[in-house]
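User: Here's a chain of 167 residues. Predict its fold as tokens.
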Amino acid sequence: MTFDPRSICRALNDEGVSFVVVGGFAAVLHGSPLPTSDIDVVPRRDPANLDRLARALTSLGAQLRTAAGPVATTIDAGFLDAMPLMLNLCTDHGDLDLTFAPTGPRQDFDAWDADAGVVEIAAGLSIRVASLDGVIDSKRAAGRDKDLRALPYLESLRDEIAGGAST
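Assistant: Prediction complete.
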């Protein structure tokens, strides 16, 4: 399977899901050269949006991602609402992580959405993408080795975008 985040985002948009892209793919959309193999999204948690999200996930062939491999399950709004923090999925277009309670200062969809921007990632396909500051803050708060290793690159990118890079 080839990682195709655009197809994942298109399926979410087609169902009218309210979401913000965060994590590594958000960083890539800001210009980061660091590779990523999944897409992380923070969805709005209201019942109608969770229902739309469940339909999108079904259309994507989503399954639970486990160390032992994919596990098929029925994904509906009730199942999604019961997820306290995160849900790791594999889809027909690659891995998708749903983050319901993100690490760091932005604790929910509304906080991420407040400073997210709209990015066109393909012709006719626009999505909400976390600010680079938001991505940096969440990686710092997560404290995982891979996130900490990414911080100097992302901070340098932020400085370059802000015009603060020295030449």
